[in-house]
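Duplicate of #3305? Posting structure anyway:
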């Protein structure tokens, strides 16, 4: 098989780069786009991927708990659960087919740039809160007093602690409940876990937790 690093390919790539600099045009799968914008997007994508890798490395060091016992790491669970290695939200280097024009590319760059802002991170955690409460309401909504307690815990916990806790404890994975025993068990798990996480959020230096819970 001919190497893509052959002299002929290297010369061809150099010529293409020179031509792109002269014309400021890059051809990608038949699409003619401004070279400076293509390169700008590539740099932004690299920054996003770097942040994703940094967070994944942190998650590899965070234990994932179920019933107070460590089962695996948060990172390993991210890579094996639901999406596999193609985890949702990962930005790819390849230009999407939806980008056909210069205007499409500009809009894509603007959207990707927004993912590097503190506002985007805040928005993500707000979505986590909302999604958790939607699931909790579907299961526990008829139990007004206990559901209100869940709401209070979720709204009290700070953003960083909540973002980690929702990844770190299986008890906060709310699925459909089919029996009264399952309902009571899950309700107690959710309330106890949220209480411990809320205490951690209140006093990060406090090392005493309920049910062997730990935030890393």
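Output from current build:
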């Amino acid at each position: 098989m001919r190497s893509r690093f052959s002299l002929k390919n290297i010369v061809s790539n150099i010529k293409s780069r020179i031509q792109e600099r002269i014309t400021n045009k890059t051809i990608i799968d038949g699409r003619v786009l401004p070279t400076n914008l293509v390169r700008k997007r590539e740099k932004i994508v690299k920054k996003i991927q770097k942040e994703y890798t940094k967070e994944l490395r942190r998650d590899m060091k965070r234990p994932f708990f179920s019933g107070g016992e460590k089962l695996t790491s948060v990172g390993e669970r991210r890579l094996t659960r639901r999406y596999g290695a193609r985890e949702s939200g990962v930005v790819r280097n390849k230009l999407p087919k939806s980008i056909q024009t210069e205007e499409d590319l500009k809009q894509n760059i603007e959207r990707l740039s927004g993912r590097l802002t503190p506002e985007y991170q805040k928005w993500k955690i707000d979505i986590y809160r909302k999604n958790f409460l939607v699931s909790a309401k579907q299961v526990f909504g008829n139990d007004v007093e206990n559901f209100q307690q869940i709401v209070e815990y979720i709204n009290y916990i700070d953003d960083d602690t909540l973002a980690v806790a929702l990844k770190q404890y299986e008890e906060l994975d709310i699925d459909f409940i089919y029996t009264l025993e399952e309902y009571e068990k899950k309700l107690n798990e959710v309330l106890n876990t949220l209480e411990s996480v809320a205490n951690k959020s209140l006093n990060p230096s406090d090392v005493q937790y309920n049910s062997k819970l730990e935030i890393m």
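Confirmed duplicate; merging threads. Residues 118-216 form one domain. The two ends are 48 Å apart (CA to CA).
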